Amino acid sequence: MTNFLAVERALRAAAPHALIEVARSALATHYGAHGVELLMADYSLATLHPVTAVPRSAAALSVHTTVAGRAFGSQEPCQEDAGPGVLVLHLPVTVRGDRLGILSVSLPGEFATPETRNDLAEIAGLLGHEILVAQRDTDIYLQARRVSRLTLAAEMQWQLLPARACSRAEYSIGAQLEPAYAIHGDNFDWASTAENLTLTITNGMGEGIHAALLTNLAVNALRNARRAGVGIADQAALADQALYAAHRGEAHVSTLLLSFELATGRVQVVDAGSPQLWRHRDKAVERIPFEAQFPLGMFDQSEYAVQEFRVLPGDRLVFVSDGVYAASSPGGEPYEEQALARAIASAGLLPAADVPAAVLRALGDYRDADADDDALVVCLDWHGRGALSTG
Fold this sequence. Notes:
Elements: H1 3-13, H2 19-31, E1 35-41, E2 47-50, E3 61-62, H3 67-74, E4 78-81, E5 86-95, E6 98-108, H4 114-134, H5 140-143, H6 152-160, E7 165-167, E8 171-178, E9 186-192, E10 196-204, H7 208-227, H8 232-247, E11 253-261, E12 266-272, E13 276-281, E14 284-287, E15 307-310, E16 316-320, H9 322-325, H10 339-346, H11 355-366, E17 375-382
Antiparallel strand pairs: 1-2, 1-6, 2-3, 4-5, 5-6, 7-8, 8-17, 9-10, 10-11, 11-12, 12-15, 13-14, 13-16, 16-17
């Protein structure tokens, strides 16, 4: 059995709470590691936190000013010296584009061969898969992500999300919510098959727990309809009925639903409220408007019509909630007037996973300091499948 297979077997057999302890032992035995540390990215994607026992006393590391942070941002292994003859390898722990954190492994320099580096990079990815499974049975990895306590509404919203990023050959998605520790009603969801990607952006009205409960009902109603195999117009109609039955029109959820045909780039859209779509194609950034229909739950038995457009390889689609585009500067100018397009253009060289944070940072510099609305940005880079016509 190779060293890699021995570590893989050990991780798969580990108790959910004991993954890092098992990794330390296995990497010491099979690769001569002096030390192993798992760092989880916090909810704001600003710091990396060691997975330790509660209460936590280990210091967090900045994503922006440390070698581990550089590995997290670049999604490439990085190394640093840790004393005479000792190297620390910082390896991205990422699952299908979703950046969970960093695995830091201290090795004697003579052990850090190219083969060992490749093995450890694969082990970091394997550890990520095991963490996602383990989180069903333990809280320690979620606890390590927290700079401070989440509000109850934020706890509900983060648990509702599919992930913060996802990559396939045809597309890459990145998403972020702010304020990460006190979000209200903004949310996003996606699911794919061999033929289609379904993406929804939702914004439940109200604040705090009431908005979170409303969004939770909407997202699960949409998922229930989607998993029944119906199209997005019927998904919207069924979710609308569920919300109206629960609130009789006194509460509603603004929603943008999209279904992407992976082979052709044809997109079906139902615009049921306020989320906006902006497209960055070549050097042009522009909003793509749709015919607005009633938000989900506003009226009884609403019917929804599908619209269509086309995405081309190289297109970047950026979805924003009203907490982004309707935010105002201290002088009263809405963010969507000019600043939003500038922020999207300025992030043009970043990967999809980094774009939402960049747009939200620009928003934070722009808007009134007293603004407290939650803000959502989702970025989708379309790669396409094969050669698509531009007609």
